[in-house]
Fold this protein.
Amino acid sequence: MDLQLNNGEDLCFFFTTLDWFLWFVCTHAFSSFSGIDASIIFLDHPNSIDGEIVMINPRIINRSRELDMKVWTEECLVLPPTFRATLLRDAVVTVEYQNFDGDFRQITLDGELARAFQHELDHDRGVLIVDHIGLDEMDPRMRFIEHIDHDQKMEKAFTRFISDPFETS
Ligand SMILES: [Zn+2]
Protein backbone atom coordinates (compact mmCIF):
# COMPACT_ATOMS: atom_id res chain seq x y z
CA MET A 1 0.00 0.00 0.00
CA ASP A 2 1.39 3.38 -0.97
CA LEU A 3 0.97 6.24 1.44
CA GLN A 4 1.31 9.38 -0.64
CA LEU A 5 1.32 12.63 1.29
CA ASN A 6 2.39 16.03 0.04
CA ASN A 7 2.34 18.97 2.35
CA GLY A 8 3.34 22.59 2.71
CA GLU A 9 5.92 24.39 4.74
CA ASP A 10 4.07 24.66 8.04
CA LEU A 11 4.71 21.17 9.36
CA CYS A 12 6.85 20.60 12.39
CA PHE A 13 9.23 17.85 13.33
CA PHE A 14 9.30 15.91 16.55
CA PHE A 15 12.66 17.29 17.62
CA THR A 16 10.86 20.54 18.30
CA THR A 17 9.64 19.04 21.57
CA LEU A 18 11.85 17.77 24.36
CA ASP A 19 9.54 14.83 25.07
CA TRP A 20 9.96 13.42 21.63
CA PHE A 21 13.68 14.09 21.72
CA LEU A 22 13.93 12.02 24.90
CA TRP A 23 11.78 9.34 23.30
CA PHE A 24 14.18 9.24 20.37
CA VAL A 25 17.23 9.03 22.63
CA CYS A 26 15.62 6.31 24.73
CA THR A 27 14.66 4.35 21.65
CA HIS A 28 18.18 4.46 20.32
CA ALA A 29 19.59 3.59 23.74
CA PHE A 30 17.21 0.64 23.98
CA SER A 31 18.21 -0.47 20.50
CA SER A 32 21.88 -0.31 21.44
CA PHE A 33 21.49 -2.19 24.71
CA SER A 34 19.17 -4.83 23.31
CA GLY A 35 21.31 -5.53 20.28
CA ILE A 36 18.63 -4.31 17.87
CA ASP A 37 20.26 -2.52 14.98
CA ALA A 38 17.54 -0.24 13.66
CA SER A 39 17.21 3.27 12.38
CA ILE A 40 14.04 4.98 13.57
CA ILE A 41 12.80 8.36 12.41
CA PHE A 42 9.62 9.91 13.74
CA LEU A 43 7.86 12.68 11.84
CA ASP A 44 5.07 14.72 13.37
CA HIS A 45 2.70 14.76 10.43
CA PRO A 46 -0.72 16.36 11.05
CA ASN A 47 -2.11 15.17 7.72
CA SER A 48 -1.34 11.51 8.25
CA ILE A 49 -3.98 9.21 9.71
CA ASP A 50 -2.38 9.09 13.17
CA GLY A 51 -0.82 12.57 13.05
CA GLU A 52 2.61 11.01 13.02
CA ILE A 53 4.77 8.68 10.99
CA VAL A 54 7.27 6.28 12.52
CA MET A 55 9.76 5.07 9.93
CA ILE A 56 11.88 2.05 10.74
CA ASN A 57 15.01 1.61 8.61
CA PRO A 58 13.98 4.34 6.15
CA ARG A 59 15.69 4.50 2.75
CA ILE A 60 15.46 7.15 0.06
CA ILE A 61 14.39 5.48 -3.17
CA ASN A 62 13.86 8.61 -5.26
CA ARG A 63 14.88 12.26 -5.18
CA SER A 64 13.82 15.31 -7.13
CA ARG A 65 16.32 16.85 -9.56
CA GLU A 66 19.53 18.32 -8.21
CA LEU A 67 18.63 21.59 -9.94
CA ASP A 68 15.47 21.79 -7.80
CA MET A 69 17.28 21.58 -4.45
CA LYS A 70 16.04 24.03 -1.81
CA VAL A 71 18.04 26.34 0.42
CA TRP A 72 17.39 26.02 4.15
CA THR A 73 18.93 27.53 7.27
CA GLU A 74 19.06 24.83 9.92
CA GLU A 75 20.04 24.38 13.53
CA CYS A 76 20.64 21.16 15.43
CA LEU A 77 20.14 20.11 19.03
CA VAL A 78 23.53 18.42 19.22
CA LEU A 79 25.33 21.66 18.29
CA PRO A 80 25.56 25.00 20.12
CA PRO A 81 22.13 26.70 20.07
CA THR A 82 23.46 29.78 18.27
CA PHE A 83 24.93 27.80 15.39
CA ARG A 84 23.11 27.95 12.04
CA ALA A 85 24.05 26.43 8.71
CA THR A 86 22.65 27.45 5.35
CA LEU A 87 22.58 24.38 3.14
CA LEU A 88 20.81 22.59 0.31
CA ARG A 89 18.29 19.77 0.63
CA ASP A 90 16.43 17.82 -2.00
CA ALA A 91 13.02 19.38 -2.58
CA VAL A 92 11.19 16.04 -2.74
CA VAL A 93 12.22 12.61 -1.51
CA THR A 94 10.40 9.30 -1.75
CA VAL A 95 11.14 7.09 1.24
CA GLU A 96 10.60 3.41 1.79
CA TYR A 97 10.40 2.21 5.38
CA GLN A 98 8.79 -0.37 7.63
CA ASN A 99 6.11 0.32 10.21
CA PHE A 100 5.89 -1.31 13.65
CA ASP A 101 4.12 -4.30 12.09
CA GLY A 102 7.02 -4.86 9.70
CA ASP A 103 4.98 -3.82 6.67
CA PHE A 104 6.79 -1.89 3.96
CA ARG A 105 5.47 1.57 3.19
CA GLN A 106 6.40 4.33 0.79
CA ILE A 107 5.85 8.02 1.28
CA THR A 108 6.76 11.08 -0.77
CA LEU A 109 7.82 14.08 1.33
CA ASP A 110 8.26 17.68 0.31
CA GLY A 111 8.69 21.06 2.01
CA GLU A 112 9.50 21.02 5.72
CA LEU A 113 8.94 17.27 6.00
CA ALA A 114 11.49 16.54 3.27
CA ARG A 115 13.97 18.86 4.96
CA ALA A 116 13.44 17.40 8.43
CA PHE A 117 13.66 13.84 7.15
CA GLN A 118 16.97 14.47 5.37
CA HIS A 119 18.39 16.20 8.47
CA GLU A 120 17.55 13.19 10.64
CA LEU A 121 18.71 10.64 8.08
CA ASP A 122 22.01 12.51 8.03
CA HIS A 123 22.32 11.93 11.78
CA ASP A 124 21.81 8.26 11.19
CA ARG A 125 24.83 8.10 8.88
CA GLY A 126 27.05 10.30 11.02
CA VAL A 127 26.55 13.55 9.11
CA LEU A 128 25.79 16.87 10.82
CA ILE A 129 24.83 20.24 9.36
CA VAL A 130 28.42 21.42 9.94
CA ASP A 131 29.46 18.89 7.30
CA HIS A 132 27.33 20.70 4.71
CA ILE A 133 29.22 23.99 4.96
CA GLY A 134 32.78 25.13 4.38
CA LEU A 135 35.27 25.71 7.17
CA ASP A 136 35.37 29.39 6.16
CA GLU A 137 31.68 29.66 7.15
CA MET A 138 32.40 28.61 10.75
CA ASP A 139 33.61 30.69 13.65
CA PRO A 140 37.21 29.94 14.74
CA ARG A 141 36.24 27.61 17.58
CA MET A 142 33.94 25.54 15.39
CA ARG A 143 36.56 25.52 12.63
CA PHE A 144 39.18 24.23 15.08
CA ILE A 145 36.91 21.36 16.12
CA GLU A 146 35.71 20.50 12.62
CA HIS A 147 38.81 20.92 10.49
CA ILE A 148 39.97 17.30 10.78
CA ASP A 149 38.73 15.27 7.80
CA HIS A 150 36.26 18.03 6.91
CA ASP A 151 36.67 17.49 3.15
CA GLN A 152 35.74 13.83 3.50
CA LYS A 153 32.78 14.69 5.73
CA MET A 154 31.55 17.25 3.17
CA GLU A 155 31.84 14.70 0.40
CA LYS A 156 29.72 12.29 2.42
CA ALA A 157 27.18 15.01 3.24
CA PHE A 158 26.79 15.90 -0.44
CA THR A 159 26.26 12.31 -1.55
CA ARG A 160 22.72 12.02 -2.92
CA PHE A 161 22.45 8.24 -2.72
CA ILE A 162 19.40 6.31 -3.82
CA SER A 163 18.56 2.87 -2.48
CA ASP A 164 16.79 0.14 -4.40
CA PRO A 165 13.29 -0.51 -3.11
CA PHE A 166 12.74 -3.77 -1.25
CA GLU A 167 10.89 -6.56 -3.05
CA THR A 168 7.64 -6.68 -1.11
CA SER A 169 5.52 -9.05 -3.20
ZN1 LIG B 1 20.24 17.57 14.15
